[in-house]
Structures are given as C-alpha cells and as structure tokens.
Design a protein that fits this description.
two-stranded antiparallel sheet, Oxidized Rhodanese, domain 1, alpha/beta
Amino acid sequence: MVFGFNKVPSVDASDVENLISNGHILIDVREDDEWEAGHHREATHISMGTIEENLSKFTKSNDYIIVCRSGARSSRVSNYLLSKDFNVSNLDGGMKALFNVSNNIINSKGSTGQII
C-alpha cells in the first residue's frame, strides 16, 4: 500500500458532531493505546496499518471522516481511500482539535478520555 500526498478534503472539528448526526462515519486510524486513552464515542477504530486489509468495511455510498491525533496520518489514509474512490475527508487538527470542541470523547472504560 502506498500513501500519497495530494490535496485531501478536510472538515473542521467544530463541524464533526453535525456531520456524524447527518450520517458521516468517523474512522479513527490511531494505534490501540491512543484509541483506548480517548476516542469519539461514535468512531470506528481501524488503525492506519490495517486500512488496506479492512477495505471491505468501507462502502462507496457512505461519507467518511478520517481522524488521527493531529491530522498527518489521517491525511495519508484519506488520500489512499480517495485513490480507491471512497468519499472521505480528513479531520483538520485531528483528535487534539476535536477534544477541544466535543463532549463525546471517552476512554475504553467509558469515562472522559484524553488524547495521547
């Protein structure tokens, strides 16, 4: 799998809750320890290293928001998924930005999460 660097559509953290409520699917591509420490309660976890083997979990009819800690990994994953003709946007600023505007960040135990 090759992750390129092209212009990827992005969304602002302040728009994520509304986009999720309108059907967008949030995919968190961080590592397991990052996910366990804090993630959006509506997110699906597919770590960056397993995206290619999990392509069957994506459908062309859905809109996806891809997120990592700060936006770099998710931008690479977004570009890859775009090359496969999926409808994706990168979350600008990643979980660090989302943490500042969302009350839906939890840890693996369901308590308030943190971003590591």
